[in-house]
Amino acid sequence: MRRFCKLFFCSLLVVASSCTQADEKPKMYNSYKGLVMAGYQGWFNAPDDGANRQWHHYTGPDGFRPGSCTIDFWPDVSEYEKTYETEFRMADGTPARVFSSYDESTVDTHFRWMKEYGLDGVFMQRFLAEIRNESGLMHFNKVLDSAMRAANRYGRAICVMYDLSGMRPGQDEYLLLRDIADLSERHALKDHGRNPSYLYHNGKPLVCVWGVGFNDKRKYGFDEAETIIRGLKAQGFSVMLGVPTHWQKLTGDTQHDPRLHELIRECDVVMPWFVGRYDEESYPRYNSLIKENIAWAGQNGVDYAPLCFPGFSWRNMPGKENSLQIHRNKGAFLWQQLSGAIASGAEMLYIAMFDEIDEGTAIFKCAHQVPVGASRFVAIDEEIGSDHYLWLVGQAGRMLRGEIPLSDAMPVRDRD
């Protein structure tokens, strides 16, 4: 009995430590307003990481080797506790290494960076096409477990986000509702005292549902979306809905059906998808769109979270080799969007993405020196740090909260 009590007491100390290591008093996130949040994919695997998924989300049609991959940026792995050797080679002939999201140490490193640079937190992606399978469910549960601990350890906001892409209607909408009920129990999502880092909005724990209203011939539609939204509301959650760019006018990438507006009005936050829609030259037209979106949302009792992304690249994605590339211009493109959204009246921001090196939207630390050979990778400009984009979104958070003046001029970093 004495040994049991000792072990129980030690376990309580571990839990307490995870919440107070970074802050003596855990920070409680009661609203998305005033926050800059990023999407967190967490979908990368490597052989021998324990997930039994081999290379995952790195691989092209012939595995993960020169000439066959899906990533365009290479991660800066200098701070990771665990890394994995690949068949790629650097210019000096040494093997190039990558990380696995399955390792808790990887997730811990990422949340430490969030705290160090001032990113408020992340939306943890859960892909229905993945979690319907045992291996995918195990992987994303492990990543989320690690993230929940790290979020409380470093005082960062965290929120669950479901990506409906590939959803099978008539089944997966109920899978989602069962899954969030399970996560709610396992991670105390409705007990803010036990899980202070979980993001609340309008007095309830927030859940994001992404992928409603797109006109790209998805197998699911508004009926399934309605089941999910109302099911989440019935379970006591507030809801953020991820919709197409032209959701307000029901044109372009959006289904021309006013039912989308009805569903948005049932939600608490609307977030449009802007990735790949514009570059530096064409952004001003979309900045005007943001102002119109904010006005509509205000008139209809919904909060609005505009999306910003650092750039886009798809050269190594099979079948996309000659597709659109949107250059980062050393952060000028991202800052144009960050300052533009805030100047337009945005009260919260969504950054796509924290770790998506697949589409070249990652803001986490990417490498200056990249592998050479058959696959062509985008290197971070030597004139800026590998952490430049993390730093920029941290500055945007300060600007959003009025801690520094609003400016469309990209801030100059003092490295002394």
What does this protein structure show overall?
By secondary structure, this protein is α/β, with parallel strands linked by helices. It has a single domain (38-400), classed as TIM Barrel, CATH 3.20.20.80. 33% of the residues lie in helices and 13% in strands. It is built from ten helices and twelve strands. The protein has helices at residues 2-20, 104-117, 128-131, 134-154, 172-187, 222-234, 259-265, 283-299, 332-343, 388-400; strands at residues 36-40, 84-89, 95-98, 121-127, 157-163, 200-201, 204-210, 238-243, 269-272, 303-304, 307-308, 349-351. Strands 1, 4, 5, 6, 7, 8, 9, 10, 11 and 12 form a ten-stranded mixed beta sheet that branches. Strands 2-3 form a two-stranded antiparallel sheet. Strand 9 (269-272), helix 8 (283-299) and strand 10 (303-304) form a beta-alpha-beta unit. Helix 1 (2-20) crosses helix 4 and helix 9 (332-343) packs parallel to helix 10 (388-400). It is globular, with a radius of gyration of 21 Å. Mean pLDDT is 93; it is low at 1-23.
Largest sheet: 10 strands, mixed
Low-confidence residue ranges: 1-23
Q: Note the run of SSEs as H and E.
A: HEEEHEHHEHEEHEHEHEEHEH
Q: CATH superfamily assignment?
A: Glycosidases
SS summary, helix count: 10
How are the SSEs ordered, and which strands pair?
Blueprint: H1 2-20, E1 36-40, E2 84-89, E3 95-98, H2 104-117, E4 121-127, H3 128-131, H4 134-154, E5 157-163, H5 172-187, E6 200-201, E7 204-210, H6 222-234, E8 238-243, H7 259-265, E9 269-272, H8 283-299, E10 303-304, E11 307-308, H9 332-343, E12 349-351, H10 388-400
Parallel strand pairs: 1-4, 1-12, 4-5, 5-7, 7-8, 8-9, 9-10, 11-12
Antiparallel strand pairs: 2-3, 6-7
Helix pairs in contact: 1-4, 2-4, 5-6, 8-9, 9-10
